[in-house]
């Protein structure tokens, strides 16, 4: 590309959009110390539904009668999204799922040697038998069944593929590969999913954890490898370091030209709702939904944005797409263009000479306060430098 050619984004479309399956109400609520009451669960499910999320995992029916009743109530409130219930590889879990009235159950089957031998004290033949029997049991109850490879990323890929084949033969509709401990990197995730997609008749869903900070990257790699369904949570909430974040996955896929049907302008209020219910405020720098992610202070960046937004704005990350806007703030790293802009916005004198004289004061005040300056701070500094600055706007 010629140095003076228009800037190009690196996003590139690759195949149809995957379907997002949100598990905020199941895996998200498994976050240590997080509890959603029934009203919050209903509100979150309705917000996910209204945002265009295709599938919502509502909970674990095996927790008892109260949970079964709660799942029933949440499911009744859904308009477009398909609900499902999570179950362990136990017949009683499937029976409990059936009592909810939800017509889809996901059965998670431990597959890694440490899970089979260490946790359950069983062998590989147990997993083979359970998948055959439980899928048949569930389909006999009229349930659609997906099967999940718990800790599949630490399991012999040949055994994972074998279990997927057994699940398909027994009547399952989908196979979920879980990176339960978040040990994969994007290259390994891509290779593992590509192998499954190439050899299995079932659609492949990918469920990532964020222990190494790679859940979103691994999920997108899985999508590039052919995973048709992606498991996510709002804000990346979930066990330990969390899961792949709904807002990040949806935003990237949309930027690639593979929109998932999720309304990007719904993501910020959705994240804020879940954060309030979880008692975990959205971090300022959280991609897409963080309150500070479209804020700019650095003189170089602010100068570029004011001249041409594309200098520091990707086509796939325009803030308006998410119902947001750029926010230019004054601080230690501000430059002349930022001070001129702030003075103009405040209705103050804003010629270059005045702004240049004010700039060191702005930086010093930001250092003293250890924060960005508010409009009142700027007005105070401007009046201190020139008592008549207010209302003496100049071009």
UniProtKB/TrEMBL annotation:
Keyword Hydrolase assigned: no
GO biological process, one term: nitrogen fixation
Gene3D superfamilies on file: 1.10.238.260, Aldolase class I (3.20.20.70)
Enzyme class per UniProt: transferase
Family: Belongs to the alpha-IPM synthase/homocitrate synthase family.
Species annotation: Phaeovulum vinaykumarii
Annotated protein name in UniProt: Homocitrate synthase
Domain Pyruvate carboxyltransferase positions: 18-268
Transferase in keyword set: yes
Known EC number: 2.3.3.14
Described purpose of this protein according to its UniProt entry: This protein is a Fe-Mo-cofactor biosynthetic component.
Entry-linked InterPro entries: AIPM/Hcit_synth_CS, Aldolase_TIM, LeuA/HCS_post-cat, NifV/FrbC, PYR_CT
Annotated catalysed reactions: acetyl-CoA + 2-oxoglutarate + H2O = (2R)-homocitrate + CoA + H(+)
Gene Ontology terms, MF aspect: homocitrate synthase activity
Domain of life: Bacteria
One Pfam family hit: HCS_D2
Keyword tags: Nitrogen fixation, Transferase
């Amino acid at each position: 590309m010629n140095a003076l050619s228009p800037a190009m984004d690196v996003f590139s479309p690759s195949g149809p959009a995957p379907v997002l399956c949100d598990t905020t109400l199941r895996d998200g609520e498994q976050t240590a110390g997080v509890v959603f009451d029934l009203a919050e669960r209903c509100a979150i499910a309705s917000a996910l539904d209204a945002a265009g999320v295709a599938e919502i995992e509502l909970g674990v029916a095996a927790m008892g009668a109260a949970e079964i009743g709660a799942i029933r109530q949440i499911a009744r409130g859904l308009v477009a999204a398909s609900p499902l219930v999570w179950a362990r590889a136990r017949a009683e879990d499937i029976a409990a799922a059936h009592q909810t009235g939800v017509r889809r159950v996901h059965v998670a089957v431990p597959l890694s040697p440490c899970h089979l031998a260490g946790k359950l004290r069983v062998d590989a033949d147990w997993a083979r038998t359970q998948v055959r029997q439980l899928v048949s049991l569930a389909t006999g109850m009229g349930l659609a069944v997906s099967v999940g490879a718990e800790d599949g990323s630490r399991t012999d890929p040949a055994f994972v593929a074998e279990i997927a084949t057994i699940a398909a033969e027994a009547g399952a509709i989908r196979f979920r590969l879980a990176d339960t401990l978040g040990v994969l990197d994007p290259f390994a995730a891509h290779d593992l999913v590509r192998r499954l997609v190439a050899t299995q008749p079932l659609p492949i869903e990918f469920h990532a954890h964020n222990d190494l900070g790679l859940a979103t990257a691994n999920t997108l790699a899985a999508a590039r490898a052919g995973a048709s369904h992606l498991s996510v949570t709002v804000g990346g909430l979930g066990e330990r370091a969390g899961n792949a974040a709904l807002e990040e996955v949806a935003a990237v896929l949309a930027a690639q030209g593979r929109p998932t049907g999720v309304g990007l302008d719904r993501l910020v209020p959705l994240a804020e709702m879940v954060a309030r219910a979880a008692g975990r405020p959205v971090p300022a720098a959280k991609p897409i939904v963080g309150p500070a992610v479209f804020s700019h202070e650095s003189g170089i960046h602010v100068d570029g944005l004011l001249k041409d937004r594309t200098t520091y704005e990707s086509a796939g990350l325009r803030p308006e797409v998410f119902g947001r806007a750029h926010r230019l703030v004054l601080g230690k790293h501000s430059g002349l263009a930022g001070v001129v802009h702030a003075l103009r916005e405040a209705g103050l004198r804003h010629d270059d000479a005045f702004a240049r004289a004010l700039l060191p004061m702005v930086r010093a005040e930001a250092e003293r306060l250890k924060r960005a300056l508010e409009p009142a701070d700027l007005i105070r500094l401007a009046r201190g430098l020139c008592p008549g600055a207010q209302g003496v706007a100049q071009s």
